[in-house]
């Protein structure tokens, strides 16, 4: 087995000499004005290493000019990058140069490109006649991360120009741009790799570039690295030259890429192994990872699912995959779940590696859905790219839709359409029901604003709207429109109106445009994409007809949203699907409701003794409320024979009832009455909806006089589910396993001693193993529940045992389960120590810091500790968790149980103390709104629930 990159003491001395030379030389060349330090671990010790940062002198104040705009000017358009990188994993530094060929679009006297945390040592400008000139008066606009290069003359429109830049940058473990990752080899020594995460605005941290999605170009990449390692990039290697330009180094020359944006560029230098195959359509598909993981077989499932889904997606889009290869790489440290870099997709290990002997069915599902999600992007996002980040949802919403339904094609027994309802639709209904939500198409400029929208609205709401659109257009028509869209805009950029146009063209081909309001998709979809939220459709019997109205659903109707995001008036084009009784459940009646319909009469149904259900199979993005008579009929039907309803519709009835009880649209007793039938429910999807709904009551009531009675009632609902599944082997039936895990998890969490004793028995059996790190008798699907309850009801030594296993494990999925279990402890001092460990990158990987803290805050004994920790460590958290939506999720977890005036005041004071909260700004606003709603809910419902429980226990 090949050794990794281990830095010796002697090398550490040489490193110091190396950096002295680099810093002095670069400082002289570029007028270095500041330095940063990072900590890297060597031979078990952390040393402060001086690394170069942006260095040219900067005028103060900046002269006025186009650099004052956070967006790049359109004066120059990149055509081709020649990029050379030398990646030094012994000295934790990279250096290189980039040569950019650019077309002049509008005349200017300067070149403005992005650069961040790079030391620029040389800049050379090439004129349209190929004459070259070294530029020494370049400067930096640090706030907007611009490198400004005066050209000395006005550029001529239509002419080609060149810019050559030499640079040096640090390899840090900050999970952004080109960064350092580390893991322990079999010998216990650290091994290092360099990897990338460019999205959304960190390509500029790897090399100077036009770092916006509309600036597509071709890239020819060359990477110099130590021999014995592997270099990967978007395209296959054209040639490898060893001992060039110096002994012990290899230079990898990669084939030129297709036209693509900078955020999809990727490179990795590592000592990984891989497995591979060739797809039916001739694509070389590889899965890479730590050699030990590859040798264990943990990459086999990802390769299989990648093969089947890539072939399926080529057929689905009717567009050939445009590259000769696709590498999928599992890296130990990664900020996102995965990243769709064209031809070089990078994943967290938990999203790509699956060992059937140690990992749960939920881990298998995660690998499948993430692989399909990222492969879906290879067309939708990569081949055709959003013009700007305000249309992020075009990429992520579509990939979210495909991840579920594409997985459902390659794993048909999982019934992914049913799971989509609880995984995505109902989950995003919660944040989108707040007055501080946002449209899926939302103006963004600053990088913090871009990071802020990598949230459930862009992903899950985007996917839910596409699901609705597929349903009203029809699958075949939708796919025709997609193929037109992809072929027309291949290797280019798109605005969402482009998608509406080509979907309308697909509808015309099938003669379906006449059935659309306005005759086109845009008329309908503008009401869903340009305004936030969604409607509640109210169905009321009125004599011999059903009248339907719509209004903007809000958990807090006092929220002032009238002037937010345009003037569409919070009315929607809503495709209604409905059935009276079971007559049309499989072939629903359909009707459009328009924004102009104050009241609409449902056609084909009249009030009688039977119930009515609207939004069959929960395919549309709205909630449905009914009059009290129909709710009574629905409750009776559920108690009589709940299987007359689809699983998804049972889930919808539960989720809607409890949401309306939160908003004040329905009495809480109606929602509670709906739970009575759960004593007979055995299917996972309705139970998942019920657990999600009852979780709100759990956190609201846990400190009230009602909680004891509520917990006892909840136990009576779960008992039959637990008795039915117990701890018995369910084979490979995913939905049965998920229902079983739900039953065991709820029954133990609600305090059933039989369940807790069994969890402790299994845990103690594991503890008694002579080699617990290699012999764990606990079934993979039960591990989370067993670990949590053992730590929750055990002693400090049980926490310590789990912590030791966490530290020893090399399986990322297992580490995640252990980390969750550790957060279940009830001792304040243990939880305080654990929170400190969460932010120590030597104890918990930086990528896992957020979830580590969240697991503590999901524990009622850790909620207040977690909130205190967040406030005390806010500056550190902004540095550690600043990427994507990590801070937003942390704020949501810290505050979701807030329901007192005292907590509200704490939250308001926190917001006032941190007015510039970056990517967490909207999350803090939403937390304040949610807390106000919780306070009102408690005032309105605590006593009502108490009296209901007295009558129904």
Could you outline the blueprint of secondary structure elements for this entry?
Blueprint (H helix, E strand, L loop, with lengths): L8 H22 L4 E8 L2 E8 L23 E13 L4 E12 L5 E5 L4 E8 L5 E3 L4 E3 L4 E5 L9 E11 L6 E8 L5 E8 L20 E9 L3 E4 L3 E6 L6 E6 L12 E4 L2 E6 L5 E6 L1 H5 L4 H18 L7 E7 L6 E2 L4 E5 L12 H17 L6 E3 L5 H19 L5 H17 L14 H6 L3 H18 L1 H14 L3 E3 L1 H14 L11 H9 L5 E8 L2 E8 L21 E7 L8 E5 L6 E2 L10 E3 L8 E4 L1 H14 L5 H17 L4 H7 L9 H18 L5 H19 L8 H16 L3 H15 L15 H11 L2 H13 L3 H11 L5 H11 L10 H9 L5 H10 L1 H7 L5 H10 L5 H13 L7 H32 L1
Parallel strand pairs: 3-13, 19-20, 20-22, 23-24, 25-31
Antiparallel strand pairs: 1-2, 3-4, 4-10, 5-9, 6-7, 6-10, 8-9, 11-12, 13-16, 14-17, 15-16, 18-19, 21-22, 25-26, 26-29, 27-28, 27-30
Helix pairs in contact: 3-4, 3-5, 4-5, 5-6, 5-8, 6-8, 6-13, 6-15, 8-9, 9-10, 13-14, 13-15, 15-17, 16-17, 17-18, 18-19, 19-21, 20-21, 21-23, 23-24, 23-26, 24-26, 26-28, 27-28
Describe this structure in words.
The chain is of the alpha+beta class and 953 residues long. The chain has seven domains: 1-269, Sandwich (Immunoglobulin-like), CATH 2.60.40.1730; 272-360, 2-Layer Sandwich (Zincin-like), CATH 3.30.2010.30; 361-529, Orthogonal Bundle (Neutral Protease, domain 2), CATH 1.10.390.10; 535-633, Immunoglobulin-like (Sandwich); 634-750, TorD-like, CATH 1.10.3480; 752-859, no CATH class; 867-953, no CATH class. Helix content is 41%, strand content 20%. It contains 28 helices and 31 strands. The strands form nine sheets. It has an eight-stranded mixed beta sheet. Strands 18-19-20-22-21 form a five-stranded mixed beta sheet. It has a four-stranded mixed beta sheet with strand order 29-26-25-31. Strand 27 and strand 28 form a beta hairpin. It is globular and about 90 Å long. It is an enzyme of class 3 (hydrolase). Residues 611-932 form the ERAP1-like C-terminal domain. Residues 78-264 form the Aminopeptidase N-like N-terminal domain.
């Amino acid at each position: 087995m090949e050794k990794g990159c281990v830095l010796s003491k002697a090398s550490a001395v040489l490193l110091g000499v190396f950096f002295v030379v680099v810093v002095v030389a670069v400082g002289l060349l570029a007028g270095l004005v500041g330095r940063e330090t990072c900590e890297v671990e060597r031979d078990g010790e952390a040393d402060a290493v001086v690394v170069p940062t942006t260095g040219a002198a900067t005028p103060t104040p900046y002269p006025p000019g186009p650099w004052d705009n956070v967006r790049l000017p359109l004066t120059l358009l990149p055509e081709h990058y020649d990029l050379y990188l030398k990646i030094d994993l012994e000295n934790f530094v990279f250096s290189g140069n980039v040569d950019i060929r650019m077309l002049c679009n509008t005349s200017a006297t300067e070149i403005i490109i992005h650069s961040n945390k790079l030391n620029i040592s040389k800049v050379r400008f090439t004129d349209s006649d190929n004459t070259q000139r070294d530029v020494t008066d370049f400067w930096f606009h640090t706030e907007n991360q611009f490198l400004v290069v005066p050209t000395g003359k006005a550029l001529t429109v239509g002419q080609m120009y060149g810019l050559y830049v030499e640079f040096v940058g640090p390899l840090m473990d900050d999970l952004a741009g080109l960064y350092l990752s580390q893991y322990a080899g079999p010998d216990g020594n650290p091994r290092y790799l360099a990897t990338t995460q460019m999205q959304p605005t960190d390509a500029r941290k790897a090399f100077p570039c036009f770092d916006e999605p509309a600036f597509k170009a071709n890239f020819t990449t060359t990477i110099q690295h130590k021999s014995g390692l592997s270099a990967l990039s978007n395209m296959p290697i054209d040639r490898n030259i060893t001992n060039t330009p110096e002994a012990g180094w290899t230079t990898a020359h990669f084939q030129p890429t297709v036209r693509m944006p900078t955020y999809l560029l990727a490179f990795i230098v590592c000592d990984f192994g891989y497995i591979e195959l060739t797809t039916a359509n001739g694509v070389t598909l590889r899965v890479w990872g730590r050699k030990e993981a590859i040798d264990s077989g943990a990459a086999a499932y990802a390769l299989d699912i990648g093969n089947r889904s890539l072939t399926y997606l080529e057929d689905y889009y009717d567009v050939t995959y445009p590259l000769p290869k696709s590498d999928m790489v599992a890296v130990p440290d990664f900020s996102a779940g995965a990243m769709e870099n064209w031809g070089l997709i990078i994943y967290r290990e938990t999203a790509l590696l699956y060992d059937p002997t140690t990992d749960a069915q939920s881990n298998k599902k995660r690998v499948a859905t993430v692989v399909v999600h990222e492969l879906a992007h290879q067309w939708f996002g990569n081949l055709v790219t959003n013009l700007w980040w305000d249309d992020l949802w075009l990429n992520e919403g579509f990939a979210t839709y495909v991840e579920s339904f594409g997985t459902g094609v390659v794993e048909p027994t999982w019934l992914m359409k049913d799971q989509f309802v609880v995984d995505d639709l109902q989950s995003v209904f919660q944040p989108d029901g707040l007055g501080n939500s946002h449209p899926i198409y939302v103006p963004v400029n600053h990088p913090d604003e871009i990071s802020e929208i990598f949230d459930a609205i862009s992903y899950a709401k985007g996917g839910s709207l596409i699901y609705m659109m597929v349903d009203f257009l029809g699958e075949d028509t939708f796919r025709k429109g997609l193929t037109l869209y992809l072929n027309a805009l291949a290797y280019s950029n798109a605005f969402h109106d482009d998608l509406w146009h080509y979907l309308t063209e697909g509808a015309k081909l099938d003669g379906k445009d006449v059935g659309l309001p306005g005759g086109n998709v845009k008329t309908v979809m503008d009401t869903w994409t340009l305004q936030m939220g969604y409607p509640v459709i109210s169905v009321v019997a009125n004599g011999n007809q059903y009248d339907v109205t719509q209004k903007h659903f809000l958990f807090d109707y006092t929220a002032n949203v009238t002037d937010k995001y345009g003037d569409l008036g919070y009315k929607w084009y809503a495709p209604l699907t409905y059935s009276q009784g079971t007559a049309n459940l499989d072939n629903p009646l359909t009707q459009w409701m328009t924004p102009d319909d104050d009241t609409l009469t449902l056609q084909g149904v009249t009030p009688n003794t039977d119930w009515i259900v609207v939004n069959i199979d929960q395919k549309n993005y709205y909630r449905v409320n009914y009059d009290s008579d129909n709710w009574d009929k629905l409750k009776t039907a559920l108690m009589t024979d709940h299987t007359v309803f689809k699983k998804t519709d049972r889930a919808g009835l539960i989720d809607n009832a409890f949401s309306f009880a939160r908003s004040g649209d329905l009495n809480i007793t109606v929602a509670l009455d709906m739970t009575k039938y759960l004593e007979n429910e055995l299917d996972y999807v309705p139970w998942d909806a019920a657990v999600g709904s009852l979780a709100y009551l759990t956190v609201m009531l846990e400190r009230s006089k009602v909680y004891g009675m509520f917990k006892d009632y909840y136990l009576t609902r779960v008992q039959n589910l637990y008795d039915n599944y117990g701890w018995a082997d369910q084979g490979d039936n995913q939905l049965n396993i998920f229902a079983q895990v739900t039953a065991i998890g709820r029954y133990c969490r609600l305090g059933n001693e039989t369940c807790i004793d069994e969890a402790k028995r299994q845990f103690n059996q594991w503890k008694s193993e002579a080699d617990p790190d290699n012999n764990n008798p606990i079934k993979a699907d039960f591990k989370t529940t067993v670990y949590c309850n053992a730590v929750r009801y055990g002693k400090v030594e049980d926490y310590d045992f789990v912590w030791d296993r966490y530290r020893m494990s090399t399986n990322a999925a297992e580490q995640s389960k252990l980390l969750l279990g550790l957060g279940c402890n009830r001792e304040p001092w243990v939880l305080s120590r654990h929170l400190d460990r969460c932010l120590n990158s030597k104890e918990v990987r930086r990528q896992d810091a957020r979830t580590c803290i969240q697991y503590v805050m999901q524990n009622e004994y850790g909620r207040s500790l977690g909130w205190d920790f967040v406030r005390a460590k806010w500056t550190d958290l902004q540095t550690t968790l600043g990427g994507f939506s990590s801070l937003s999720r942390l704020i949501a977890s810290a505050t979701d149980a807030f329901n007192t005036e005292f907590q509200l005041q704490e939250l308001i004071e926190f917001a006032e103390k941190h007015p510039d909260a970056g990517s967490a700004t909207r999350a803090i606003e939403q937390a304040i709104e949610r807390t106000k709603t919780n306070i009102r809910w408690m005032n309105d419902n605590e006593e009502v629930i108490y009296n209901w429980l007295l009558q129904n226990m």
